[in-house]
Amino acid sequence: MTAAEANRSASRFQRFLLPGFAFKAVVIGGGYATGRELAEFFLGSGPRGGLQALLLAMIIWSVVCAVTFMFARAISAYDYRTFFKALLGPFWVLFETAYVLLLILILAVVAAAAGTIGQTLLGWPDWVGTALLLASIIAVTSSGNEGAEHLFRYTSTFIYLTYALFVVLALLSFGDRIGPQLSRPVPTDGWVVGGITYASYNVIGAVAILPFLRHFTSQRDALIAGLASGPLAMVPALLFFLCMIAYYPEIGGEALPSDFLLRRIAVPWFHFLFQAMIFCALLETGVGIVNGLNERIDAGYKARRGVSVSPGARFAISALFVIGSGVIAGRFGLVTLIASGYTAFGYVMVVIYILPLLTVGVYRLVKRSSGQSDEPQAHGT
User: Percent of the chain scored above 90 by pLDDT?
Assistant: First the structure.
């Protein structure tokens, strides 16, 4: 089957929902699955300011994903190196450097979160939960895009249903506390900065999931999928944050705000279910970013050698980055990694990704749509 035939046979799920699910997969496990990111970036602006910041971040995600998906389809860029060689020219290497460093940071965060969950819930040593997650990431990414697509399809359903049940139980347990907290005269200072910073480092997900954009049949598909990505990724966070508001401000100091709330819901079987959901979210994030790196390496290798990277090589690449990141997680811990690392990368992504995309990228898309000639497509080497 040719690439064109494959695109025509793509399902509506693959065209419109898979990119958003994949984007959600990358951003959810790096901290907001446990609530730690929400505490770090949004609670400081108070309940209302935090909600405003979350909505701002969602809008930024939708816009950036839509332009990213349309630009990628226009130049047939399904790995991040091809994408940034077209967008940044000779400066593409700046993004690759930042991407690899951010990949290590995100993997370290999800590894630390898995270790903390295992210790809190089951009394395991930190390294057991971390090792279990990292082994799962390596196993899934070794099978390439197909394995990742299957993971995102099924775990996304589980994640959304679990969050919905979490909200219902939280409202029944302590929902009466949320309204008064929202009406408190708390300053909302910093909500714009918080929303932009949080959105900025997380938009790396739009580039990490480029391998899943091959199913688009038109720029309309890319636009719809991109606009849908913001809400698909942010709705669970909004619901979670509403529940966190009930215990503002003390919940802001918790390493695992999710566990703090689950203890107050006090439904033991759901406590285990929610932690299983968080593990799935962490797995999705790790798979999403490592698969993006594997696809970039595969594109370059194929351009030079004419063949794809072998499954054994994929396994080795995944293991190298995943295990190395696990070591970093053990050294620094979850709270320190999120507080110190993510803010810096937010500023970096604004400079080397968001601003070029919304200027150079939009300009080139407009030129193409108006029928003007544009530079030839870039291909990874």
Answer: 46
The DSSP element (H or E) to which 252 belongs, if any, is: none
Q: How far apart are CA 231 and CA 216, in angstroms?
A: 20
Domains in the chain (CATH in brackets) are 11-366 (1.20.1740.10)
The gap from C-alpha 198 to its chain's centroid, in whole angstroms, comes to: 11
Closest CA to 39 of 255, 281, 184: 255
Are 94 and 88 in contact by the 8 Å Cβ rule? The answer is yes
Residue 125, amino acid: P
Q: Are 82 and 381 in contact (CB under 8 A)?
A: no
Which helix (H) or strand (E) segment holds residue 346: the answer is helix 343-349
Question: How far is the C-alpha of 25 from the C-alpha of 159, rounded, in Å?
Answer: 10
Tokens representing 113?
Answer: 């979160």
pTM of the model: 0.85
pLDDT tens digits, one per residue of 56-92: 999 999 999 999 999 999 999 999 989 999 999 999 9
Q: Which of 201, 283, 246, 209 is nearest to 33 (CA)?
A: 283
Q: Is the dihedral of CA 118, 126, 39, 351 positive or negative?
A: negative
Strand ranges (DSSP E) for the chain? none
Residue pLDDT, tens place only, 123-140: 888 788 888 988 998 888
The amino acid sitting at 69 is F
Tell me how far apart the alpha carbons of residues 357 and 364 are, in angstroms, rounded to a whole number. Answer: 10
Specify the DSSP class assigned to residue 28: I
Return the residue matching tokens 């990141």.
325
What's the rounded Cα separation, in Å, for the pair 182 and 46?
8
By C-alpha distance, which of 244, 179, 248 is closest to 32?
244
